Amino acid sequence: MHAFVGGGAVGSSVRRVRRCSARMGLYGEAFQAAAQSYFADLAILHKYIGIPAEVVRIEHPLLMTSSVALLAGIGVKLGFESRGKDSAERQQSLHKILMASFLGICALGFGGGTLSYAMQQKEIWKSIHSQSAVALLVLLSANAILGISKLRSLHTGVGITVCLVLGAHIATGIQLLFT
Description:
This protein is mainly alpha-helical. The protein has five helices and no strands. The chain crosses the membrane at residues 100-118, 124-146, 158-178.
């Protein structure tokens, strides 16, 4: 009971939270610097191999455009078509396979996009495009968990949100391509 006199317990908790968040900021900056160094080293390796600058610039957009158009486009279509139908087991099964593949491709695309940034001597993970990619990966992962847990209405709502974030991600990617 005496720990709460004068707000001592509350004050110490606030100090602990501040110290923890300050450490997390330092860890975040350290992680950012380590990742920047790692991807810069990979960029040097790719330059040593002799990959032309034009290929570096358009490789990520072309590969991701094809995966979005094929995997995500067909996967979303199948997901909406199978919604509420009892006889749509095959469509639901194919939807799961396509969207799981799309999540994997997006994770690889995040690495490829980061490498593309590093090869163009840009600072990684600072753009809106990179941040929307992280949001997209988080939402896709959460939606996969919701789909497994059979929360169908929530799964659909998060799926629609994924489509909106994907649209914003594509728009920022197109903007980056022409700058």
